[in-house]
Write a structure and sequence with these properties.
The chain starts with a helix and ends with a strand. Helix 1 (2-23) packs antiparallel against helix 7. The strands form 3 sheets. The chain has a two-stranded antiparallel sheet. A two-stranded antiparallel ribbon has the order 3-6. A two-stranded antiparallel ribbon has the order 4-5. 5% of the residues are buried. The protein has helices at residues 2-23, 29-36, 43-54, 62-87, 94-105, 110-119, 121-139, 143-156, 180-193, and strands at 158-161, 167-170, 197-201, 206-208, 212-214, 219-223. The chain folds into 3 domains: 1-140, no CATH class; 143-194, no CATH class; 198-226, no CATH class. Helices cover 61% and strands 11% of the residues. The protein is built from 9 helices and 6 strands, in the order H-H-H-H-H-H-H-H-E-E-H-E-E-E-E. The longest helix has 26 residues, at 62-87. Strand 1 (158-161) and strand 2 (167-170) form a beta hairpin. GO terms for molecular function: heme binding; iron ion binding; monooxygenase activity; oxidoreductase activity, acting on paired donors, with incorporation or reduction of molecular oxygen. Keywords: Signal. Residues 1-18 form the signal peptide.
């Protein structure tokens, strides 16, 4: 039993750290800012922070991990680029669509926009790994809920054959609204167990809640929930 708990703890830790080991970098912009030892609210510091973040030391065998991480990023970006050329922005969320339109209106190259989308998948991996663990943990003992979620997913999954004739099954994320039990359970897991923050920079002086003055060009950390 002792070894079972040890292996379980190691599995959870590896799951949460998997994105870090795979990509060979730590995605921690706030630690990167602190390492620069200057104010985080000026453009020069922000540029230095990005450099520290993208070239941060790896935890395991950096000599072997770094080439693997670079090759993985290049392969990942090539897949994103190919998908965009094939289907465009079809099926993207409203947020992604509006952000792409904003970048286009300010003259950003299509390749740079896609590279940005590919890079943000790194922190997303952390959230998905933790959310999948808690989703499995909270639904494993509730048979009625698990059965209902499976029935919804089965009706939504699309099956086809690949070039070798082997069956391939795909769950189209745009059809998630057809699975109210699955969607509601995912939202509840995120509500209870996700406590992240997002960095935002003020572009003008603004008063928050009629109490706090945020000056122009100030970097703020906004929680995803109260």
């Amino acid at each position: 039993m002792f070894y079972y708990h040890v292996l379980t703890a190691f599995f959870i830790y590896a799951l949460l750290q998997g994105g870090e080991w795979l990509l060979g970098q730590r995605v921690n912009s706030f630690q990167a800012v602190s390492e620069v030892q200057t104010s985080p609210n000026d453009g020069k510091t922000e540029k230095q922070s990005c450099a520290v973040e993208n070239n941060d030391r790896t935890r395991l065998w950096p000599r072997y991990q770094s080439p693997l991480a670079i090759a993985w990023r290049q392969k990942h970006f090539a897949g994103v680029l190919l998908r965009c050329h094939n289907i465009g922005n079809r099926g993207a969320s409203k947020l992604v669509t509006m952000r792409r339109r904003l970048f286009n209106s300010h003259g950003f190259r299509e390749e740079d926009i896609l590279r940005f989308k590919a890079e943000i998948s790194t922190p997303i991996l952390y959230n998905i790994s933790a959310a999948l663990f808690w989703l499995s943990r909270k639904t494993s003992g509730r048979h009625d809920l698990s059965k209902g979620m499976r029935c919804e997913a089965v009706e939504t999954i699309e099956g086809k054959e690949d070039d070798n004739g082997k069956p391939v099954y795909r769950f189209d994320i745009s059809h998630l609204e057809k699975c109210p039990l699955l969607l509601g359970t995912c939202h509840e897991v995120l509500r209870q167990f996700t406590d992240g923050t997002s960095a935002r920079r003020a572009i003008e002086d603004i008063m928050l809640n009629k109490r706090f003055l945020v000056k122009d060009n100030t970097l703020m950390l906004v929680p995803f929930r109260e």
